[in-house]
Records
---
Amino acid sequence: MSNVLNFPEPAEIEVISEEAFRKYTDAALLLKCFEVIKDTLDVINEPEYSIEKEDDTHIDLIRAFYALKVLFARKTGHDAAVVAQDHWEAIGRHLLEGAPYPDQLIPIAGAFISPTPPDGYSHLGNLELACAAYNASDKVRLGTNATLSADNAQIKATMAVEAINATTALGILVRRLAGGSLAELGQHILGTTGVGSE
C-alpha cells in the first residue's frame, strides 16, 4: 500500500493582457466587449449585487479594457490609453487654465513608405514606367490581402501610398504616350471616344 497523496493538477492561470487579446479577431473582441457591458449593466440593475474589486465583473471589465486597446491599436496604430490620457490632459487645461477647447482628434497610423514624386519616374523609359506601375499595383493587391487578414492600420496606409505610386506612374506613362501634355491627352481621349467628332 502506498502513502502517496494525489494532489490535483494546478489550474491553468489566465493572463489578462493586451498581448493575450491580440490573437482574437475584431468580431470576437467586439462580442467580448458587448457581453461584458451587458453583464455589467445587469449587475448594476440588480440592487442586491454590486461590483467589487477583483470580482467576476471587475475582471471582465479588465478583459474588455484590453480588448478595446487591441481594437484601437489595429484601427489607428496608436495606444488608446495614451490617446485618452492626452485628451484628458487637454480637457483639463481647457477647464482649469482656460486653454482653447481641444480638437481631441484620433491619430491615424502612418505608412511605412512615402509616395514617389512624379520626378522620381522621369528617368524611366516607357517599359520601365509600365513595370513600375504594375509593381506598385501588385503590391496593392498583395497588401489588400494582408490587410484583410491582419487588419493593420499601417498596412492600410502603406497600400494607399502604393496605389498613389501606381496612379502616378500610369498617369505619366499615359501622358507620355499621348504626346506629353494634358491638352494632347484630352485631344486623344476626345478622338478615341468619338466625343465632338462631328
Note: The chain has a mean pLDDT of 83.
---
Amino acid sequence: MRDILLVALIAYAIGNFSTSYILGKLIKRIDIRTKGSGNAGATNALRVFGKKIAIVTFIFDALKGVIAVIIGEMLLGDMGGLIAGLFAVIGHDFPIVLKFKGGKGIATTIGAATFIHPIPALIAIIIGIIIIIITKYVSLGSVSAISLVPFIGLIIIRPFNLEYILFLTALALLAIIRHKSNIKRLLDGCESKIGEKAK
C-alpha cells in the first residue's frame, strides 16, 4: 500500500507541471486560465498563444504521462505504470499548485496510454484526428478517441488484461467529465472550431 501511495503521489506531482500555464506566464505574462476557454492545455494554448506554444505544450504534457509511467513501472511493475499514468492525468486536470484548475488531460492521457500499450492508443488517435479534420472540433475528436480506447483494447489486447481495460476506462470517464462543458456546447451548436482565435 505504501508503494502504491508513493507512485500515486509522484505521478500526481508530475501532472502538476502545467506547461501552458508556465509558458504563458514566462513568455506572454498571461495566465492562460483567464483567456479563451480557461483551460490550461494545448488546444487553448493554440487559440491564445499560437502554434509554437501549443505544440510545445502538447509535447511536454504528453511527456508527463510517459515519465510518470516509466517511474511507476520502475517502482511497482506494470501495475505501477497504470497507477502512475492515471494519477499523472489527475494531477494535470486538478493541480493543487493551481488551486485544482488545470487542463483536460488529453495530451497526458495520450502519452501514458501510448507508452503502456501503443496499438490501441494509436488506432484511437488516428480516429480522433480524422474526426477533427472532418468536423474541425478538437473536443469532439478528443473525447471520441479517448472513449474508444477501452473498446479497442477489449478487441485487440490478448491475453485479456482487466487492469489495463479498467485503466483505459478510468481515463475515458475522466476525459468525458472534464469535457462536459464542451459536450454541452457541441449539442447546442456553439463549440469553437480549431483555428478560431480566443476572444
Note: Residues 51-93 form the longest helix (43 residues).
